[in-house]
Amino acid sequence: MNTQPLPHGAQPLPLAGITVVAVEQAVAAPFATRQLADLGARVVKIERPDGGDFARGYDTAARGLASHFVWCNRGKESVAVDLKDPRGMALVRRMVAGADVFVQNLAQGAAARLGLDAATLCAAHPWLIAVDVSGYGAEGPYAHKRAYDMLVQCEAGLVSVTGTPGQPVKSGIPAADIAAGMYAFSGVLAALVRRGTTGRGGPVEISLLDSLAEWMGHPLHHGMHGGAAPARTGLAHAVIAPYDAYPTTDGLVLLSVQNDREWRRLAERVLGRPELADDPAFATNTARVAGRAATDAVVAAALAPLTAAEALARLDAAGIACARLNSVAELADHPQLTARDRWREVESPVGPLRALLPPIVFPDAPEPRMDRIPALGQDTDEVLAELGVPEAEVKELRDAGVIA
Description:
The chain is of the alpha/beta class. The chain is 38% helix and 15% strand. The chain is built from 17 helices and 13 strands. It has a 6-stranded parallel sheet, sandwiched between helices. Strands 9-10-11 form a 3-stranded antiparallel sheet, covered by helices on one side. A two-stranded antiparallel sheet has the order 6-7. A hairpin with a 2-residue loop joins strand 9 and strand 10. Helix 1 packs across helix 7 and helix 7 crosses helix 8. The longest helix has 24 residues. The two termini are 20 Å apart. The model has no long low-confidence stretch (mean pLDDT 95).
């Protein structure tokens, strides 16, 4: 792993010196532990010898590597161990004994059968922070259901409020996995703070359903306390108008009017219709939402003759929040990311790959650690040597298929 000398007065990355062992797969747990690695933690990823994390096989889009794996696994060490073999489990237990944090997202019940659930590990190692990431939680009628991202998006109601009036759609990103990963990450940080004051670690439980249900807070509270849940409205906002995408001569432009003062500016300086600022049919957000079709029509008529660049310039000059509907390729070349030098290269088994710096910035510390994406079992020998396993035993274990 890379080490960076600290300039005078600088601080280390906040998780430098923390060791994490993870028995993880897919997205939720790997996304959480990648955040820990970026901030300086050593992350040892335990994988099956026969193929490893199954996310390695999702696709080959990243120059032969799987795009999910590339995204979620930089900065980690890969140790390939068969957990079903007692000799392999003995090695993993030795790794955990020297760790600060353990994270797992095996199928419900599998970790407990192996003795790798948070409760068991924390009872044996009081200083350890152990995280169980599950689909639906450890108890309840859904505890043992298989939980993949799209299924949890449906169970959490996200799909019911996403899409057009005639077609519900899932999120284009794995929202349930990301939500759980971020809560696992923040749960580890909170537990580390608590351990710093009490000297004890403890178990942390995260479920995909709980995490995404929290993110559903606006439609959930709107529906529970204010009547019907917000309707699916495509790119439009369910309770604010105008807040939508509008065509120009060369692409869609999105704008958002958050209050009636902004509507006045839009009417006077962009639409060229100052009389609409005081027209009872448009003057308040309530009126504009009730007459959404008319509101959208006057905005669309004003923007339609303009290019996207002209429309954005007018909106910016009037102080109206706006954006262009970018493609993924346009995001990769976004001028704001380029201007702020947000791109780096990460080493991988197929050579350097472009990657974004993580969002958390510590100006008084070195850059986040963006070390290589590991090949399966790339670090097995090194980690076992640190455990004191003799070379002859390593060879024996490899010949028996216990490690790779």
